[in-house]
Amino acid sequence: MSNGARHGLGVVIGLVVTPIIAACLMYGTTKLGQFARTFRFDGSDRWVGAGVMLIAAVLIGLAAGSRVSPLASLVPGVVYAFVGALWILAPRWSFEHAGRDVLPRDLRYGYLTLAPFGVFLVLGIALVVASIAPSRWQARTGVGAGPRYGAPPPPAPMGPPAMHGAPPPPPMGAHQPHQAHQAPPSPGQSPPPWQGTPQYGQAPAASNPPPLPPAPPPSERPKPSSGSRSDDDEPGEWTRMYGGNR
Questions:
Q1: What is residue 53's predicted lDDT score, i.e. its pLDDT?
Q2: Angle of helix 119-131 relative to helix 45-63, nearest 10 degrees?
Q3: How many CB atoms lie within 10 A of CB 22?
Q4: Which of 10, 6, 24 lies closest to 75 in space, CA to CA?
Q5: pLDDT by 10-residue block (mean), the chain, 246 residues
Q6: How many Cβ atoms sit within 10 Å of the Cβ of residue 243?
């Protein structure tokens, strides 16, 4: 429903509930007043008066609800506030034009009881204040719910970034197929930046390992001494002592 249609429906609701709320309040006041004067506990005046008062309270709450257009509460609020202000500013004129020829007797008694005591003025001002909330005048569109405030950000993807043209990495927890060992880069090609990053549980590799000492030439290698004898030339001391071959 568009915002204009919602406000138009609010005007219709306000025009309908304005006389109904006023009639329920005036009739309920008349019935409860009769019960208060006579205290006839076996009569039905108290139940009828309380019932119509509850109807008026429900209609007031629905008109002032946040889901309804503010015009539904602004229209009766302006009417009741105007009537209540007349009894404060011009009480004599208001009493002379109390609608004796228009209102029935039951409604006229309730009106002459509520209006001089400022009940309509208080009710009208309350409905007007309930209508000026900015949230009630804004249109409600079906927009998807945004991220909740204070929610943790989504986890960052793990592993090296995907190469151009490579398939996307599998989601976390999915079974990953065995991958073949990646061949080392050629001498003229620099390794990717993520290969130099040590994995969890591995020691970081040295960026510039020290060079190995050069191997000595064959001519400088130590030669075995000519005076040394092998074990097969002469028997050992234990062999000579215990009768071995001499």
A1: 93
A2: 30
A3: 21
A4: 10
A5: 82 92 93 80 78 94 84 92 93 85 86 91 93 80 51 61 62 57 57 56 57 64 53 59 56
A6: 7
* Cβ contact 84:119 at 8 Å: yes
- Whether the Cβ atoms of residue 35 and residue 96 lie closer than 8 Å to each other: no
Q: Give the model's pLDDT for residue 77.
A: 93
Residue (of 106, 132, 103, 142) closest to 28 by Cα position: 106
Residue 96 C-alpha from the chain's centroid: 57
Alpha-carbon span 195 to 119, nearest angstrom: 81
- Report yes or no: 85 and 121 within 8 Å, Cβ to Cβ: yes
Place of tokens 């008062």: 53
Tokens (6 digits) for 1 = 């429903």
The string of DSSP codes covering 15-60 is HHHHHHHHHHHHHHHHHHHHHHHH--TTSSHHHHHHHHHHHHHHHH
* The pair of three-digit structure tokens given for residue 215, joined into one six-digit string: 């191997």
Query: For residue 58, what pLDDT is reported?
Result: 94
Task: Show the tokens assigned to 195.
Answer: 């290969």
Dist CA 85 CA 199 (whole Å): 81
Which phi and psi (to 5°) does residue 228 adopt? Answer: -75, 140
Between CA 23 and CA 16 the distance in angstroms is 12
pLDDT at residue number 119? 92
Compute the distance between CA of residue 186 and CA of residue 142 in angstroms, rounded to an integer.
58
Give the integer Cα–Cα distance in Å for 53 and 25: 6
User: So where are the chain's domains?
Assistant: 3-137
